[in-house]
Fold these 2 entries.
Entry 1:
Amino acid sequence: MKAFSANGTLLPALMLAASLIGGSAAAQDGKPIKIAIMNDMSGVYADFQGFGSVVAARLAVEDFGKQIGNRPVEIVFGDHQNKADIGATMARKWYEVDGVEAIVDVPNSGIALAVSEITKEKNKVFLISGGVTTDLTGAKCTPNNVHWTFDNYALANGL
């Protein structure tokens, strides 16, 4: 079974994250590559984000062989509760304490902007699959971000 999130983008996003992280795999043999799923797991968006994205990520890791080189891939997850301060605190802890190397999902523009700044500061990887503000691909764009889906500019001009 192939793993996809509700919008069908999780498997390719995880593979991209793994490949971006994979360059350092040889230097850290055996140490897990931690990829974090951050989204709304308890609020109004939980039905189409939430724990289903975690299950899809775990299936994607399984499809990918569960490791990169000699490093196992581990999925961690958290509920940002649709609050930028909670998302930012979670991202900082994941990077500084828990050894997370990439954060994916974050379908909330305000939280995505906060996580983007922390990701840039920590020189990690952030794959955005739901925050649609044009600032993520414009004024606040960083080399650490991959804006995986459309932004508001593309959405408006596409219509």
Note: The first helix runs from residue 10 to 22.
Entry 2:
Amino acid sequence: MDTTLKQRFSLRVLFDEYCPQPELRFTRTVVQVGLLRHTDGELVSRSQGKRLVLGLDKFSSVTFDFSGVQRMQQGFADEVFRVWRSAHPQIRVDVIHVAEDVDRMLKHVGFARGSETS
């Protein structure tokens, strides 16, 4: 492994990004939404949304990475971006790598990008 790659994946870099001082606990996470799609089919149901957010209430900042996801249905989007967010207003929610159809559904359920904090 070359030096650049070692530095990029070092524990110090990881802790600096996801475990800010002085708390020394992980407060941020990035959720790869596409992994759920590969194991559970298309993102359509509320139950899939509930599985996705299980345990995320332990973080103060959650970023959903939609890489490779072209579509999601209303039930899934509503469960994650309206119901779960309403139950956890203290958690900052961001989205990245969002396709046009996914962005439309996020807007449809009331998630306005750029105003991710509640």
Note: The chain has six helices and three strands.
